[in-house]
């Protein structure tokens, strides 16, 4: 049996009535036994070219995707031997097989694919691959989004994050990655229509896990590991309470630091004050909420801004435009209206 959509491309097709776009919900599922259709879906979904060698086992394929342009969780099943080239342009892709073996970056680094062990798609252009009878899970994360997280945490050179697909993370790091992705997947599948805000939060969680797993995480600040843990605890407190009238004193108390100590730790580790960090979080929440709103549906920018703690609307609009490159009303207007 084959289930498909009019346009069998995991990066574009949606089972919901959202039009494709930076904030559109992607929900895709297709499966079948037709070789040509299976190849077409594989090529479109992974920027690949595919040569198929059929074995003794009956051919079957299947692909699913759920998420948006920032992050999609995908599965791929291809009961045949496939080889060709692919390109992860614009994305960081982590994959792990539940079944099957293979090799990627053939002719350059020749990285073996091991069942159950997460691995990165090479990120420096097209790469050659061979996969045999695979069933695998994948996480696709937008490179620009991950770069923003890296810049926030001072991981790698500013604006120039590079992940080495040949590095083998330690098992403890991979266990944390698996646990994080499993929880993210449960949250994403828990509702029939995950909101843009929820998808953004889950993408952030996964992006941070990507950086921790495949870069070793941010370098320790001058104050040592204790200072870094304190900053992380305070940042988590600010993110979890961004919708409340919270202040840096509560975040400092949660982290076990004085307010002055927290300010120094934030500046040393992240290059911003706790107040600046909290304002950035709230701007992100406003942006996500405006994207999720339906034009003409009664949403007011002023109400959203005040809900996230921006009392001075003129100052808010200027800060928002500086951060996102557009006026908040433009963000609200460009959201595609749902179709019946």
The assigned structural class equals: alpha+beta
Quickly name the level 1 CATH class of the largest domain.
Mainly Beta
Instruction: Give the overall form.
Output: globular
Number of helices: 11
Order of helices and strands: EHEEEEEEEHHHHHHHHHH
Find the count of extended strands (DSSP E, 2+ residues): 8
Q: Could you name the ranges where pLDDT drops below 50 across 5 or more consecutive residues?
A: 1-22, 218-225, 335-340
Number of domains: 2
At the fold tier of CATH, the topology name of the largest domain is: Jelly Rolls
The CATH superfamily of the largest domain turns out to be Jelly Rolls
Rg over alpha carbons: 22 Å
CATH architectural arrangement of the largest domain:
Sandwich
Q: What integer is the average pLDDT?
A: 80
Query: What summary fits the major beta sheet?
Result: 8 strands, antiparallel
Q: State which percent range the strand residues make up.
A: 15-25%
Can you give a write-up of this model?
- With 340 residues, this protein is of the alpha+beta class.
- It contains 11 helices and 8 strands.
- Strands 1, 2, 3, 4, 5, 6, 7 and 8 form an 8-stranded antiparallel beta sheet that branches.
- The relative contact order is 0.09.
- The model is unreliable at 1-22, 218-225 and 335-340 (pLDDT under 50).
